[in-house]
Queue: 2 jobs
Job 1
Amino acid sequence: MASPKLSQQLHRIASQWPVDPFRPHLQLGTFLKSLADHPQLTPHAVRAARSLLENESARKYPLSDKTMKPASMPQYYARLGEGYEKSAQGIARPWWKVFFGIW
């Protein structure tokens, strides 16, 4: 049986998990809440979920500017992030920009 302390910690992590606007029927927070009630919950699983929530890997292994701005397309990742944010808000690019490949 999982300890109540581990279960509470994972419930707390699950409640802080951001909602995915593109998959409203499939949320990682919901999965973590159900995992918190699993009888074989381990401290390692709770640490892994906390690490993902706090983005520890990105801080430990930061991406260089050369990786984020490749010489062939320096604005690629900036445009990708902008497109993601706009699509989450429901803002689409006009058809003519898509057709002509204009950003």
Job 2
Amino acid sequence: MSATDPDDDDARDAVDELCADFRMEAERERERTPDVGIVMGSDSDLPTMRGASEALTDLKFAEVTDYDDPPAERFTFESYVVSAHRTPDLMYAYAETAEARGLDVIIAGAGGKSADLPNMTASIAYPVPVIGVPVQEKSVDSVIGMPTGAPLTAVDAGKSYNAALSAAQVLAREHDELRERLVELHDERRDGVADVSRRLHELGTPGFEESG
């Protein structure tokens, strides 16, 4: 019988501890809880998934990093790495407790051909809406391939910024303040296109490219 690898025990203990944390938070009374959860299959997905946190930050959401000391902002989000294949128990604990922990929407991103995190999260967290982000083009079929009765909304590969806007749209149906922020952000981006168009016309193509 082979000896147990101490590193494996440490990893298992860390996963078990985080699972326990999720279940404890599901039982605890708190005045404020995160509105949106962002999960990804690996920290290597962060360059793609960062767009989700950027969009929420543009909408004046704040990120919760300590449940006992939450930000003062009205709208907040949290971020975790939750692998469907390497830590299925952690994925299950996160999704199973999502509604009880106060999450209204989850954004889930995963890469590879077997990008199962968004699908499984949507199935377990139901009826909490889940917006899937295929991290790569080859992940699209896996992310959108949910059977009838187990819905998952999804954006195109890499479009985590759009996923966060969609999450905010869900919340905005009940929060006029957030609806106004969405409209303002949309108008800012619209005006930005007009500004770029005018600069291109007035500077000409070489001048525009040189201006950066």
